[in-house]
Fold this sequence. Notes:
The structure is a homodimer. The first copy, chain A, is of the alpha+beta class. Chain A has one domain (28-190): Pnp Oxidase, Chain A, CATH 2.30.110. Chain A has helices spanning 6-10, 14-24, 71-80, 93-98, 109-113; strands spanning 2-5, 31-36, 42-47, 50-55, 58-64, 82-87, 117-118, 127-128, 133-145, 150-162, 182-184, 188-197. In chain A, strands 3-2-6-9-10-5-4 form a seven-stranded antiparallel sheet. In chain A, strands 7-8 form a two-stranded antiparallel ribbon. The longest helix of chain A is centred in the first third of the chain and has 11 residues, at 14-24.
Amino acid sequence: MQYFSIDEIKGWDRFYRANFINSLQGFKPVSLLGTVSENGSPNLAIFSNIIHIGADPVLIGFINRPVEAAPHTIQNIELTKQYTINHIQPSFVAAAHQTSAKYSADQNEFEETGLKTFFLENFKAPFVAESEIKYGLELVEIVPITHNNTFLVIGSITHVLLKEGLIQQDGFIDANKAKTITSLGLDGYYSTEPIARFEYAKPGKEVKKIS
Amino acid sequence: MQYFSIDEIKGWDRFYRANFINSLQGFKPVSLLGTVSENGSPNLAIFSNIIHIGADPVLIGFINRPVEAAPHTIQNIELTKQYTINHIQPSFVAAAHQTSAKYSADQNEFEETGLKTFFLENFKAPFVAESEIKYGLELVEIVPITHNNTFLVIGSITHVLLKEGLIQQDGFIDANKAKTITSLGLDGYYSTEPIARFEYAKPGKEVKKIS
């Protein structure tokens, strides 16, 4: 095993350290966040720091970097209260990564990357047409993280769109069958292979596979 | 595409809905959290809702369910201020899932599942000896999420332990080479296959692969 103390890590070059720290957490639920500005201009940006907060009520959070570094998504959400989260499939992973470029507020990442919008009636934020698993959210709360000026943006799911045939008998959504990708670090993208689903675990009983 | 409104989802059976909602977010950085009680008893529990908050300072968060549902990890962290996060490899995925069983506070999940502890000098919380990528943290803040009585527990990384040969030239940690798994929903576990790493994206330039 290699050992590193935080004091050693702090002394490293900024980019080397950013790659190291960002990959330490393991594989992430990378997705495209769709929003719209007050004047109706669509925005699309890739986010990997997305987290399930609870199933009842249905709350999902994501970390938005400091406003200076990543202004558009959070500003649009504050103004319109709505956004979409769209899984990424391998056929558009390069376009998805391209949305991380620093486009200006008046540039539309859908047009810049060739991804297509999809709209639901009575919901302002754009979905990614190509995405096989996607959901719409209403803003619940923006929690400031005071230690580094980031924000935990909490939303409540209002709409879900899924490709046909992904839902298993017990409600589990087979994102592996949809070919949803996962990410590592700032720029690594991966497909998945099933290992197992396990039954609900109980003390003193050996855990069994569902599939 | 199949469409579901939140009103329809709310009407579903509780377990079906929990499987559905928990898999909607996609693949997660599932890991084992190691803590120790005030009287020195080790605790180990599987968590998938882990999130990178920032690289400078190095902050990682995780969602702890309401204290009634998941008391031991958060209580140990409040008392001792230290914990470890350990990636899971396929050789011990069943043992890792088994830590989700409702053991009492005086039961030691390491003993119950056969996983081995590893300790660093001057750091109280136990690491999982079998884990190929693991890190120790000091508690920074516990942020209550008022909407559902969960908590965002924020920690600062102090120690990192990695298997030899995982760090690429630019600091990226190859968790795929370490065979770190990812999870989906409440009970699905997956291995990964590389698609690509991409260069830093810039407006107007086609994104290129690093590898």
